[in-house]
Amino acid sequence: MPSLEKTSPQQDRPVVSPTQRDEVAAAGSELFGGPLGRWARPGGSPLTPVRVVALVAIGMFALGMVQKLPCYNWAWFRGASSQYTHACYSDIPHLFIGRGFADGLIPYFDRLSGDMEYLEYPVLTGLFMEVAAWLTPGGTDMMHREQIYWLVNAGMLMVCTAVMAVCVARTHRDRPWDGLLVALAPAFALTATINWDLLAVALTAAAMLMWSRGRALAFGILIGLATAAKLYPVLLLGPLLLLCWRAGRWREYGTAVLGAAGAWLVVNVPVMLLAPEGWKKFYTFSQERNVDFGSFWLVITQRTGEPIAPETANTYAIVLMLLACAGIAALALMAPRRPRFAQLAFLVVAAFILTNKVYSPQYVLWLIPLAALARPRWRDFLIWQACEVMYFLGIWMYLAFTTSGNKQGLPTDGYQFAIVLHLLGTLYICALIVRDILTPERDKVRQDGADDPSGGVLDGAGDVFGLGPAAHPPRHAAHAVEGPRVDWGAVRE
């Protein structure tokens, strides 16, 4: 008996080659044989685009590990300034001792000595750190144990890197090569092993892939797990609410929210009940911490000489974030064509980072996969990455200046310039994404005939709600009422 298979709007289009669409990608490809030719027959090699992206990402991760070699060999253990002058600082070896892992303490349950009292990380990240501690052999040579602990964590984070790269490459089925933006991002290689952010980034990338395949429950579960590792992934539910509202996809959105809440509760409730003081440390620490590195709040305090109390900074940051979210909501509901999910996801996460009390160098990892999906343009991506690399160097040179007795490094004015530079770099990408939303004909993804490749059930769906221009959209295939799509070529006996 024949069967009919539904297809997505993107299924029948050929794979997009960046070297045929992007001048920077075409110029860069000259190092590897030049752009794809008109007679090329992709697919004949075992090195598929997804495999190439994954291998390149792992290679860049390995280069980032090599960049940390001076610290691994000696600089982590011989005073603070050396690890800054070599720009190879990492939290991982220091917290192995500082958070009790070297002594066998159990996170959240065992009290630490000093002011910190308990581990200040979310539960899933704490479990990640603890597993790495289990895999680190004991002994009396603490320097060697710190090195092994960093290597074990690096190996686990390399797995996260592969997951992230594969998921980004597969999210847009006809644009797998956009994953190279993630794999070749300089800031990714430099910041991958500073902290444990790649765990949440990999889970978020996997969630985006699941949503693009129409698996709302799997998306929600992965977002819940990602939020149990880092707070920012829960923000993606906000843009998704707006898009599902505009498209009338309430059932899928409700499924995603329930999945996220359930997964987060499964991870957190046991620790919440058995070790409430340790569990809430992450949240109280986030509220109580002072204005810190990388934020415009720090520039204000340094320029004025007046400290900003944590409570005041929290209030202003929340107000600014709410205003930014209101602007994103207006954009989502009033744009003449419904924005793509990745576009709004980048904007909301960027707004959170830009208004936060701290903008650590590794936070760029949160944005890199979203940027590759939201605006896969090499020139603009590399401009932004250049700003982030300058900040990466700037913060370590500033810390070298403040910790070394001879005051060698970057003085305060220079560091403030580096902060402003990387804030402007992030705002630059935000502005380009907003422009693409308001003038969708500029959107490179949609120029290739797609609607929303990362949108899942939103891809090609008609609007049921809109404000302003969206209430009277132009006649376009993406705004047509969605009917059943049947791939008659797929009818088989």
From TrEMBL:
This is Membrane protein. It is found in: Cell membrane. Residues 1-11 have a biased composition (Polar residues). Keywords: Cell membrane, Membrane, Transferase, Transmembrane, Transmembrane helix. It is a multi-pass membrane protein. Belongs to the glycosyltransferase 87 family. The lineage of its organism: Bacteria, Bacillati, Actinomycetota, Actinomycetes, Kitasatosporales. One of its GO terms (cellular component) is plasma membrane. It comes from Streptomyces purpureus.
